[in-house]
Amino acid sequence: MRFSSFTALTLGVLLVHAVPLVSADPVQFQSEATQTVLLELYTSEGCSSCPPAEAWLSRLKNSPKLWKDVVPVAFHVDYWDYLGWKDPFAAKAYSERQRDYAADWLSRSVYTPGFVLDGKEWRGWSSRGELLRAANKPAGVLTARSENGKQWTLHFQPTAGSASSSYDFHSALLGFELTSDVKAGENRGRKLEHDFVVLTLASIAGTNSDGAAQSTIALNPRLASAPKHLGFAAWVTASKSLLPLQAVGGWLSSTNQVR
């Protein structure tokens, strides 16, 4: 997924009979100055190998590391839809994002379940052990603030001596305890439950001022039904790069839920 400077890109899962996201309370999330890792899972309801990986990811809901040391996101890809089951949470752009990673790694193929830890392929989950420790390296402070849950102001103050002079911001609305009764494909007859699902993704170039970067980004998905819980994730990269420099996230309260 590539985008030009100063151009916003918003991607979402389009579902019918939709209801809008509303919010009553302002909310703010702020990272530490040391790096919080971004953990991405590429998954699909059409993949019989994916439920164990998703179950492992779901364990992070109750981890003290959540949001502080690690920000997890799950992108549902669409390239297994041809097997007979269309994943309702999948988007072509999420598949393209994974292919962009593969191109950076000089890999000829993509696969599910596939984990990306801070921009690098990661297979550590398969041992069913704990997530790797946070990098604990200086990165900078990333802040995300919203008055209504739709418009988010993102601000990044990098550590002194940062190698980048321009930045891109990325933010996602995350759904939890989403379920599907799969009727076809490799998971036919199974009821699947998903957490950290990327419901919508938006990216925009930051505007630099006095060594920091800032931008405003919109997240206004339309969903067919309300997830039991919602979360928010944001990360910052050097301009036109996939490699995350800092990440932040958190739970949205009941007044920030989809209604």
Features:
globular; 2 helices; single chain; mainly beta; disordered N terminus; 259 residues; 18 strands; five-stranded antiparallel β-sheet
Give the gist of this structure:
The chain has 259 residues and is mainly β.
Structural commentary:
The chain contains two helices and 18 strands. It has 259 residues and is mainly beta. It has one domain (9-124, 133-256). It has a five-stranded antiparallel β-sheet, with no helix packed on it. Helix 1 links the parallel strand 4 (37-43) and strand 5. Mean pLDDT is 87; it is low at 1-8 and 14-20.
β-strand percent reads: 35-45%
Number of strands: 18
- As a percent range, the share of helical residues equals under 10%
Main sheet: strand order: 1-13-10-17-18
- Ends distance: 30 Å
SSE string: EEEEHEHEEEEEEEEEEEEE
User: Count of DSSP helices?
Assistant: 2
Which oligomerization state do the chains in this entry correspond to? single chain
Morphology: globular
Low-confidence stretches: 1-8, 14-20
Number of structural units classed as domains: 1
Radius of gyration: 17 Å
Reported for the largest beta sheet, the result is: 5 strands, antiparallel
Mean pLDDT: 87
* Class computed from helices, strands and strand pairing: mainly beta
Question: Helices, strands, pairings?
Answer:
Elements: E1 9-12, E2 19-20, E3 27-30, E4 37-43, H1 50-58, E5 70-76, H2 92-104, E6 114-117, E7 120-122, E8 140-146, E9 151-158, E10 167-176, E11 178-181, E12 191-194, E13 197-205, E14 207-209, E15 212-218, E16 222-223, E17 229-238, E18 244-251
